[in-house]
Amino acid sequence: MPVGGAGGPGDGAAEPGTVRPGGRTARVRAAVLEAAGDMLAEQGFHGLDLAEVARRAAVGKTTVYRRWGTVAGLVADLLTDMAEQSLPRSDTGSLEEDLLANARLVARTLSDPRQGPLFKAVIAAATCDARTAEALHRFYEVRVAEWAPCVQEAVERGELPGGTEASDVVRAVSAPLYYRLLTTDAPLDEAAARRAAGAAVAAARAGAFVRTP
To answer: Which of the residues 63, 128, 136, 139 has an alpha carbon 20 to 30 A from that of 118?
Structure first.
């Protein structure tokens, strides 16, 4: 459900997510991001406090403030880490099976007791915080790019019309699952995953995602 240090805005330091740390720096980052993810899942974006994150992670407040600067900076780094840690795409040689694997992964993630509330919190925050929105967009760009080759290869095999926009097909798999998460209390189960993948495949074969001039 994605390193590096950054100070406050305008201090010339690297933005979170642009420098990959190692050793103790990596351990500090991992502890801080885990604490931040826990707090997001428990309390939402507006309950996220850098001092409390530092306490939970057993890290000095100065380190957290110097490195991430703001709550938005911390969330941006968390999303970067989540994108990098997400499972790689499946490659079964079948469009239906590849997209079903994607749907199952999305459903499993959003159903997770920690990851589901975390995503809800970040999505809610992105509606009112520009930096969080930018980080969320980058997260999904990474994930869509990971799975787009499934669709591109299907086009090459002749399973889909030429000119099919691969990224749109991948988004079409996830869209009904996120809508279900955010607007209902219905389970994100195997049936939901199969419907989402099947609908995306059917629409793609019908040419719904072919690029137009």
So the answer is: 63
54-55-60-66 Cα dihedral, nearest 10 degrees: 20
User: For residues 121 and 40, is the Cβ–Cβ distance under 8 A?
Assistant: yes
- 201 and 102: one domain? yes
- Do 118 and 185 belong together in one domain? yes
At position 34, the amino acid (one-letter code) is E
Residues 92 and 72 in one domain: no
**Gap between the Cα atoms of 123 and 191, Å rounded:** 25
The answer to whether residues 76 and 91 belong to one domain is: no
Task: Examine the domain organization and report whether 54 and 108 are in the same domain.
Answer: no
The 3-class secondary structure across the chain, one letter per residue, is CCCCCCCCCCCCCCCCCCCCCCHHHHHHHHHHHHHHHHHHHHHCHHHCCHHHHHHHHCCCHHHHHHHHCCHHHHHHHHHHHHHHHCCCCCCCCCHHHHHHHHHHHHHHHHHCCCHHHHHHHHHHHHCCCHHHHHHHHHHHHHHHHHHHHHHHHHHHCCCCCCCECHHHHHHHHHHHHHHHHHHCCCCCCHHHHHHHHHHHHHHHHCCCCECCC
Residue 22 — very low, low, confident or very high, per pLDDT cuts 50/70/90? low
Q: Are residues 126 and 61 in the same domain?
A: no
The 10s digit of each residue's pLDDT in 61-90 is 999 999 999 998 899 899 888 888 776 777
In this model, does residue 13 exceed pLDDT 80?
no
Is the same domain home to 119 and 68? no
